[in-house]
Amino acid sequence: MWLGEFLVSHDWPFHAGAVDRDLVTERLRHGYYDGPDRATFIVTDGAQRVGLVRVEDLDDPTPTFDLRIASALRRQGHGTAALRELARWVFDTLDVERLEGTTRQDNVAMRRTFRAVGFVKEAHYRRGWPSHGGRLLDAVGYALLRTDWREGTTTSVDWNDEPDIVDGPTGV
After folding, report:
1. Is 164 contained in some domain?
2. Which ranges in the chain belong to alpha helices (H)?
3. Any idea what the CATH number is for the domain that residue 139 is in?
4. CA 157 to CA 111: how far, in whole Å?
5. Which DSSP category does 170 fall into?
6. Is 167 domain-assigned?
7. Please, which residues have CB within 8 angstroms of residue 102's CB and are 6 or more apart in sequence?
8. In total, how many domains does the chain have?
């Protein structure tokens, strides 16, 4: 089974938890990779399998995804190509307004991939990503709007939208 071999034979430094063949088999049995609200696609470069992308929450207004590229094939543009193709599939196939993804703050390659495809940073979760050894790292959320994808635009987030907060007994 290619999926199991792929997941156990590469390092995933930005994913929490170990993956072994038994876990993959169990997940396959219970519809973790494919089902009514999720799908998994093999990423190829035309000649070889280079990774996979698993999209979930297909019955939700905001699907999310997990993208994995083989260790030796990273930093060659495969992630960007895969994310572009995923966005095309999501917006051509589903009636949704946005596609979301989250990564660790220190996953610079994925953050660049998000921006290259037109995703915008929308969230920063302090100590929100469990990592190996139980350490909590910051997580960063990005999203791509259907209108931005179609028009090739980028809608910025208004980070200065908080009302003035007054300290003291009359404050919030």
Report:
1. no
2. 2-8, 21-29, 78-93, 108-117, 146-151
3. 3.40.630.30
4. 16
5. T
6. no
7. 64, 123, 125, 129, 139, 140, 141, 142
8. 1
